[in-house]
Amino acid sequence: AVHRNIAAYKNDESIREQCRGLMALYLMPVSEIEQQFKHIRALFLPSLNELFIYFERQWIKGNILLSLWNASESDHRTNNISEVYNRRFGTRIINKHPNIWTFIRLIQDEHARFEHINIQVAYGAEMGKSNSELTDSSSDITTVDLTPSTPDTQTSTYPIIPKSRL
Asked: Where in this protein does the record put region Disordered (predicted)?
């Protein structure tokens, strides 16, 4: 039965369209989900009756609140951010099958890295566009010009960080 339904999904555009409609509900505002579900269900194909019954019982009227599975207000609507982290974490493991001590050390290093980032953000740094650099956006760091008065020397400036930030 499962293989038959998968084949129907692959071969029938109207089935694919209705399934995509159900899958897109998680992107709609919570207040519109039930109305949109009713709209999609009004157009449903008889072959999808069991799917709509399941979806309504489990996701629309089930024990799971709509706001828990809805991503309309979420910054991350996909799992791409976790995929990026998993890839980064995986590349840090040198051996395919590290021993427990290597794994624990890696976890400790990751913890230290995130603690460092949290401290930087707490003191005004922002994540850069590349998500790998932190740039300081605080306005309380001033720059002092230590240029000698002679015109032929190169200018150099040094940031002065207030004691409250150290």
From this structure: 130-166
Inter-axis angle of helices 13-24 and 2-11, to 10 degrees? 100
- Of 163, 166, 115, 161, nearest to 138 (Cα)? 161
CA-CA distance, 74 to 30, in Å (whole number)?
A: 12
Q: Note the pTM of the prediction, 2 decimals.
A: 0.47
Residues 22 and 56: their CA atoms lie apart, in Å, by: 10
Distance separating alpha carbons of residues 55 and 154, to the nearest angstrom: 70
The full length of the chain comes to: 166
Residue range 146-155, pLDDT digits in tens: 444 555 544 4
